[in-house]
């Protein structure tokens, strides 16, 4: 699952603030726009197993 909201990929070089859009290009500079949502899962997460166990224990 990912967000439809995108942010200008080079906003730190061209803009003084992040520029958000729903299109694939930045409306201000015309550069590429990338997905603004972080990845929901990191397979290299060393503590994920413990975090999920705590969550399961809290639900019981």
UniProtKB/TrEMBL annotation:
GO biological process: pseudouridine synthesis; rRNA processing
A GO molecular function held by the record: snoRNA binding
Gene3D superfamilies noted in UniProt: H/ACA ribonucleoprotein complex, subunit Nop10 (2.20.28.40)
GO cellular component: ribonucleoprotein complex
Cited InterPro entries: H/ACA_rnp_Nop10 (IPR007264), H/ACA_rnp_Nop10_sf (IPR036756), Nop10_arc-typ (IPR023532)
Key words, A-Z: Ribonucleoprotein, Ribosome biogenesis, rRNA processing
Pfam families (alphabetical): Nop10p
SUPFAM superfamilies on file: Nop10-like SnoRNP
Purpose of the protein: Involved in ribosome biogenesis; more specifically in 18S rRNA pseudouridylation and in cleavage of pre-rRNA.
Family indicated by similarity: Belongs to the NOP10 family.
Descriptive protein name: Ribosome biogenesis protein Nop10
Organism in which the protein naturally occurs: Halocatena salina
């Amino acid at each position: 699952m990912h967000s439809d909201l995108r942010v200008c990929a080079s906003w730190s070089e061209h803009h003084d603030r992040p520029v958000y859009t729903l299109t694939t290009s930045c409306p201000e500079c015309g550069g590429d726009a990338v997905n603004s949502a972080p990845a929901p899962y990191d397979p290299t997460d060393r503590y994920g197993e413990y975090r999920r166990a705590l969550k399961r224990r809290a639900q019981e």
